[in-house]
Amino acid sequence: MSEIQAAKEAIQQLFQLMEIQHIICVDDAYSNRDPIEEVIGLCVKVEEDKLCEILGIDSIDLDDEEIWKRKVRKRWDSLSENDKRQMFERLSGEANEEGVNDTKNASILDELLEGHRYQSCSFHEWKDLKSQIAEFDQDKKMLLLFDEDFSGEGESTTAGIGLILEAVRSNYSDRVICGLLSGKYSPEEEYEAWERITNDHEIPQEKFVLLSKQRLAQDATGFARMIKLTVLNPNCKTLTEKISGIVDAAHQTAKDKIKQLNIYNYEHIVFQSSQFEGVWEPDTLFRLFRLFHKKEARSAARSSTEIRELATKIRQVSSVATGLLDELESTSWRIQRQELYDLAEDINPYHLPIESGDIFGKTTGNTKYILLAQPCDLVVRRDGKRHQSITEVILAKIVDKDKALGKSKDVNESKNRDDPTVTEKYYELRYFNENTGVNHYVDFRDSCAVKLCVLDLCVYQSDGIARFAIGDCCPTDIIPTWNAHYNKVIGNLTKEIELYCKIKQQQSQRELPAEIKQVLKASLELAIPKSSNENLFKAAINVQTKTIKFGVERVGRLCQPYAGALLTKFAQYSARAAFEHDFGKIR
C-alpha cells in the first residue's frame, strides 16, 4: 500500500469515528477549475522525448498545436486520479515550475479527502457556499480547511485567518472543526506558528490546528496525523472542561472534609505525627487534602457516563495509525520535567529539609551531584537529632551521555557494551537539562561520602548555599525539628571558625620567628573544615565577618517515586555479585 493510500484510509477512518459528514477545503488553487489547462501549459516547457515518456504516448509534434493538445486531453481523460496526480508532478518537476506547488498540493489533498461529501472551492466561491451551511445536517460535524494565503485571488496573504475567525464566531461554530493550511511553515514550525496565530488573533486554541502544506508532498502520513489532531481538538477541550468541573467540585468536598476533622484527629495527625517524623504541619494538611481530593475526583469521573463515552471516543480516534508526533517532543518534555524535578526556587526559600534525591552543585562550574540515602535516615526528629546519628551521606556525580556511555546513541551501542554491568553503573535522569531536555546520568562509580552537616547548612539559607556566620540566627519560618537541629549543625562550625580566627590573628604578629609562622600556616590550613575525605566542596573562612562558606549549593531535587527508584538501583549496584576474572576470554 502506498503512503498516500494509507494516509487516505486513516483520514477516512477518522471522519467515520468523529461522524464528520461534510469536508470543505477553501484554497485559491481551486480558482482555476480546469487542471488540464495547467498540464498543457507545462507540456510546452518539456522536451518532446521526455514529454512522450511522461504522457505514455509514442510521439508528439508540438508544432501542430491543435493535434498535440487534443492528444494530451484524450490521454488525460483516460487516467485515474492517482495517475493524473503523478503525471502532473512529473511534468512540474521536469518543467522546473515552482509556481505549481499549490496545484500539486491541491491535487494530493483532493485525493486524500475524496468521499464523505468533500467539496473544494475558491475564496470567492466560499462566499456563496457558506450561506448553505445552515442547511447541512444539524447533528453532524463539518471540517473546514482554509488556505492561509489567498493572494492568487487578489486577497491578502493571511485572509485564511480571517475565514477561521469568521467560522468560529458564526452561529454554526458548535458544528465546525477548522484547520488552517499554510505553505509558509515547515512541519517543524507548525506548533510555534499555531501558538503565535492564536495569541495574535485571540483565537481559542481548541478552535483550529495549523497544517503545513509541505506535508502533502513530503509526508502524507504526517498530514493524516495533523488531521487527527484537528478533529480531536474540540473533544479534548470538552473533556478537559468536564474534568475541570469535577476537580472544582472535588476541591470543595476535600475542603469540607478537612474542616470536619475533629480536634482529636486534627491534633494527632497534623501536629503529633508531623513532629515525630520531622514534617512541617501544613505539608501534612496538604497530604490529607490530596487524599480526599483524589478519591472524590476519581469516583465522580468514573461514575460519569458522559466522561467515559468521551474518553472512549478520543481513545478510538487517537488509536488510528498515523505515526508518531515527533514535532511536539520539544514542548511535552517540559511538562513531564515538572513531575520529575523540583526547582531550587521551590525548595530553598522555604527551607525544606534535606531529602534523598536532592541535587547539589559546586558554586563554581557546572558539576552536579545527587544525594543517595535512606529517607528515614535523613529525617530530623523532634529532639533535633537523626536516627542512628548519621553523619555522612553518599553524593554521586551527574554526568552527560558522552561521559557515561561514550558517543553512542544508547547503552546497547556503547563502547562498553561488552561489559555486562554497564547498565548497572548508571541511572538515567530524563530531561535533566532544563533548557534542552537532554538526559543525564548518575554515575554510581563516581561517588563519595560527604559530611551531612555541610549539606544541612543549605537548608538554613534561602539561596541554598552552604554558609554560616557566627551570630546568625535560625530562620523563624523553619519547621520546629530543624529549629532544634540548628544548634547541633553550627556547634562545631562555630568552634572551628573561632579557632581559625585565633590562629590567623597569631600568624599576623610580625615578631614571631619564621619557623613558628610556618607551623601556624600549616595549622591554619588544618583548621579549615573539610566537607569530605576528598574535600569535594572546599571551605573558605572570612576572618572579618567570621563566616564560613562551602563551595556547594542545593540546586534542585529529583522527586519521588523517581528518587526512590534511583536509591534502589544504587543499592543493587552496591550489592552486585563479584566474580573472578574471565581468563578464557580474548580481549
How many helical elements?
Answer: 21
| Mean pLDDT over the residues | 86
Roughly what percent helix?
40-55%
Give the percentage of residues in beta strands: 5-15%
The number of domains is 3
Spatial gap, N to C terminus: 48 Å
Radius of gyration: 35 Å
Q: Low-confidence spans: pLDDT under 50, at least 5 residues? A: 408-421
Shape: elongated
Annotation, overall tally of beta strands = 14
Largest sheet: 9 strands, antiparallel
Secondary structure category = alpha/beta
Q: How would you describe this protein?
A:
It contains 21 helices and 14 strands. The chain has 587 residues and is α/β, with parallel strands linked by helices. The chain folds into three domains: 3-218, no CATH class; 244-324, no CATH class; 346-573, no CATH class. The strands form two sheets. Strands 6, 7, 8, 9, 10, 11, 12, 13 and 14 form a nine-stranded antiparallel sheet that branches. A five-stranded parallel sheet has the order 2-1-3-4-5, sandwiched between helices. Helix 1 packs across helix 6, helix 5 packs antiparallel against helix 6 (101-113) and helix 11 (220-259) runs antiparallel to helix 14 (305-318). The longest helix is centred in the middle third of the chain and has 40 residues, at 220-259. Residues 408-421 have low confidence and may be disordered.
Name the descriptors.
3 domains, 5-stranded parallel sheet, 9-stranded antiparallel sheet, alpha/beta, 587 residues, elongated
